[in-house]
């Protein structure tokens, strides 16, 4: 019998890539739950599903719901029976979280609690994956790559609210026996990303011969760095985790439950080098300006870094280089400009 996977925030950027991967690599039915706010866009799903035949498209069901409210019996009936829940619905705009912190508590803490409460009532649920962020660990000094057991050090309301959602997920496994995994993912990029994000913004500014702003240290000589990861790699990792044999997992300190996994790009790159890579993919010179990130973007950190060692030990890491991924995304984006200038 075919499985069913519920993806919350399914019309969002990362989630629609996960739905694409599930359609392509499984025979599962998929339920996309979304309220279609700032981040959600059904056109992502419609555009992505054009590559599938009509029968495959029928495997995706769209349900409208705002997770700031509980999933009531009517919405439960619309969702139907599910085997897996991937909880990606979240507010993720750091600047907005600084201006409106309570919004992020509602979306990422209350919304997660409502998703977990719903999951408690799902008969024979096999896995609930909570999609978290590297930012819960805060800035990473040079030479430090946080592993899954690192302490939280949230530096803005967004990361604090994601850490709060994590702790609820842990509590629901400990209290109710919910089969929860948690993932930490660094900066994700790919097709159909919101144009305000760094990579599509760089693609557009390079194409228009505009100046790219690169956030740096106080000396304006050292750019911030990240491990960028393509959304398709995140989707592949999610399916890997859904199929993972639990007996392969290490026992955690004090026999703590709720395993955590870092999904990390193949290589670390500073944002200036990344912008130059994007310009090179367009056969252009980069026009840029280094800006002190502390004064221009309070609540942001110069460097985030996670260790991908555990996932490599389990048998997964991205297969395609960052250079190739960037080249593919630049080409696709310039051929599909409506996603760049919306």
Provide a brief overview of the structure.
39% of the residues lie in helices and 16% in strands. The chain has helices spanning 13-25, 42-48, 54-57, 73-79, 94-99, 101-120, 157-176, 198-207, 231-242, 271-281, 293-296, 309-314, 322-335, and strands at 4-8, 29-34, 60-64, 84-87, 127-133, 180-185, 188-189, 212-216, 225-226, 229-230, 260-263, 269-270, 288-292.
Structure description:
It contains 13 helices and 13 strands. By secondary structure, it is an alpha/beta fold. It has 2 domains: 4-189 and 227-263, NAD(P)-binding Rossmann-like Domain (Rossmann fold, 3-Layer(aba) Sandwich); 198-226 and 268-302 and 320-339, Alpha-Beta Complex (UDP-galactose 4-epimerase, domain 1), CATH 3.90.25.10. The radius of gyration is 20 Å and the shape is globular. The protein starts with a strand and ends in a 7-residue tail after the last helix.
The helix/strand series, from N terminus to C terminus, equals EHEHHEHEHHEHEEHEEEHEEHEHHH
Categorize the overall geometry. Answer: globular
User: What Rg is obtained from the alpha carbons, in whole angstroms?
Assistant: 20 Å
Number of strands: 13
Mean pLDDT across all amino acids: 93
Q: What is the CATH topology descriptor of the largest domain?
A: Rossmann fold
Q: Strand order of the main beta sheet, please?
A: 3-2-1-4-5-6-11
Distance between the termini: 41 Å
Q: Work out the count of structural domains.
A: 2
């Amino acid at each position: 019998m075919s499985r069913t996977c519920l993806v919350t925030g399914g019309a969002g950027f990362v989630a629609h890539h996960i739905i694409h991967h599930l359609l392509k690599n499984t025979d599962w039915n998929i339920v996309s739950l979304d309220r279609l706010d700032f981040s959600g866009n059904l056109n992502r799903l419609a555009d992505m599903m054009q590559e599938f035949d009509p029968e495959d498209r029928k495997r995706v069901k769209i349900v409208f719901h705002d997770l700031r409210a509980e999933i009531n019996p009517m919405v439960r009936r619309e969702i139907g029976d599910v085997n897996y829940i991937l909880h990606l619905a979240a507010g993720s705009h750091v600047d907005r979280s600084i201006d409106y912190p309570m919004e992020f508590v509602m979306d990422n803490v209350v919304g997660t609690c409502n998703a977990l409460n719903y999951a408690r009532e799902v008969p024979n649920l096999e896995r609930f994956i909570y999609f978290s962020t590297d930012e819960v660990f805060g800035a990473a000094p040079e030479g430090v790559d946080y592993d899954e057991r690192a302490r939280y050090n949230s530096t803005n309301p967004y990361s604090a609210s994601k850490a709060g959602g994590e702790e609820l997920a842990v509590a629901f496994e400990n209290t109710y026996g919910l089969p929860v995994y948690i993932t930490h993912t660094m900066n994700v990029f790919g097709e159909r990303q919101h144009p305000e994000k760094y990579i599509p913004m760089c693609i557009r500014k390079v194409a228009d011969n505009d100046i790219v702003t690169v956030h740096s240290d106080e000396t304006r000589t050292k750019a911030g760095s990240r491990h960028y990861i393509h959304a398709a790699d995140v989707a592949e990792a999610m399916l890997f985790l859904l199929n993972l044999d639990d007996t392969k997992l290490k026992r955690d300190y004090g026999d703590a439950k709720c395993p955590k996994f870092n999904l990390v790009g193949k290589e670390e790159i500073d944002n200036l080098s990344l912008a130059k890579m994007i310009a090179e993919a367009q056969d252009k010179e980069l026009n840029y300006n280094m800006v002190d990130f502390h004064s221009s973007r309070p609540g942001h950190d110069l460097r985030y870094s996670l260790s991908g060692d555990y996932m490599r030990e389990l048998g997964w890491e991205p297969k395609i280089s960052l250079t190739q991924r960037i080249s593919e995304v630049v080409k696709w984006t310039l051929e599909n400009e409506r996603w760049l200038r919306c």
